[in-house]
Amino acid sequence: MSASDTAQPGPAVPPKGGVVAYLTLDGALRAAEFYKAAFGAEIVASIPPDEQGRTMHVHLIVNGSSVMLCDAFPEYGHPLQAPQSFSLLLPVEEIAVWWDRAVAAGAEVVTPYQTMFWGDVYGQLRDPFGVIWAMNQPGQPAGS
Predict the structure, then answer these.
(1) What is the pLDDT of residue 2?
(2) How many CB atoms lie within 10 A of CB 16?
(3) Model's pTM, two decimal places?
(4) Coil, strand, or helix at residue 103?
(5) How far is Cα 13 from Cα 59, in angstroms, rounded to an integer?
């Protein structure tokens, strides 16, 4: 079932989180399906694709926060640009579970997760659309 089959326009779903990432990708509906498989995303709303298969809006909930997606529409001044100079951080409790699911879905390991100097377990993955997803599992507080 595609993202356009699972969610349709309707009443607006309020975004969750203090800052919401809005990603322009080549294949926003495909990305939504990937994020479902890789990160357990829930598609809460989407605009059906145009005749070229592009959508202007997909609203996901990933790990309790909203992530918005759209395709590029260069003819309206919204061209596709490669993701750069940012990453999306997923704070998680069980990094191995999240990590293994994302890698099995097709995410590429950029930085293997490991205990870092600040005490947390941290790693980075790149999704098939070029977006870097960092995962961070809190370490044990000193004295635990």
Answers:
(1) 47
(2) 14
(3) 0.86
(4) helix
(5) 8
